[in-house]
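Project outcomes to date are best conveyed with an example. Our students and postdoctoral researchers have been running inverse folding experiments weekly, and each run begins with a structure described purely in tokens. The record below, which covers 220 residues, was selected by the lab manager from last quarter's runs and is presented without edits.
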């Protein structure tokens, strides 16, 4: 597994690099946006650890450009800024995890492992989570062995959650995936679909979706 670490603070970059190498990952370090863009254009990476404050620009700008260019691998953002707004912007432009500095190295490694595991799952055509099974090729859904009747849009919505189980998905992220452009979508529409999905899947004792107020939803 190859990991790109984009971090301009030399000591921190070296520390992260050593911790990842100890776990048998192969690591390249970039100390600014230009170097990071070059490395990502030249080599294939399985995951990126990305600082936001870089000497020649913002990691968020870099991430936005990569996502627009079709780079789909997991990205873990590191930032001293831990304000909720920054976290949401990070998730909106396509980060998978936002880790605020200072962080524990074990926390970083646990997130890297989880993201790489999720990445492996995202490549499967059958997704499962707590008794839910979606077969993307056959386009069928099951809940605890029983067929689940879903409309095409409900299926697409559930697929996004299963591809990202445990991850908090922002309203913008979900809307852009389902309706392409969130600009055209009445924001209440997402809530309508979420409540339909909940009706089909959840029971009073068995909840699947957590509403994260002001942010979005999480499949738990
Ligand atoms: Ca920095």
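After processing, the design step wrote out the following sequence:
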């Amino acid at each position: 597994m190859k990991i790109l670490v984009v971090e301009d603070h030399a000591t921190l970059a070296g520390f992260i690099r050593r911790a990842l190498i100890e776990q048998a990952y192969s690591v390249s370090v970039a100390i600014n946006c230009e170097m990071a863009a070059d490395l990502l254009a030249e080599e294939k990476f399985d995951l990126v650890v990305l600082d936001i404050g870089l000497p020649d620009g913002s990691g968020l700008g870099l991430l936005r450009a990569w996502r627009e260019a079709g780079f789909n691998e997991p990205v873990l953002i590191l930032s001293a800024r831990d304000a909720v707004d920054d976290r949401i912007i990070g998730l909106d432009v396509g980060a998978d995890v936002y880790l605020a500095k200072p962080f524990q190295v074990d926390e970083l490694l646990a997130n890297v492992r989880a993201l790489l595991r999720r990445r492996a799952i995202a490549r499967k055509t059958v997704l499962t989570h707590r008794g839910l099974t979606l077969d993307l090729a056959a386009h069928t859904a099951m809940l605890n062995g029983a067929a689940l009747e879903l409309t095409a849009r409900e299926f697409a919505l559930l697929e996004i959650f299963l591809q990202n189980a445990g991850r908090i998905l922002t309203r913008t992220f979900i809307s852009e995936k389902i309706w392409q452009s969130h600009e055209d979508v009445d924001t209440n529409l997402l809530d309508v679909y979420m409540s339909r999905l909940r009706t089909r899947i959840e029971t009073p004792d068995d909840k699947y979706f957590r509403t994260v107020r002001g942010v979005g939803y999480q499949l738990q």
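The two ends are 27 Å apart (CA to CA). The longest strand covers residues 2-6. The training component of this project remains on track.
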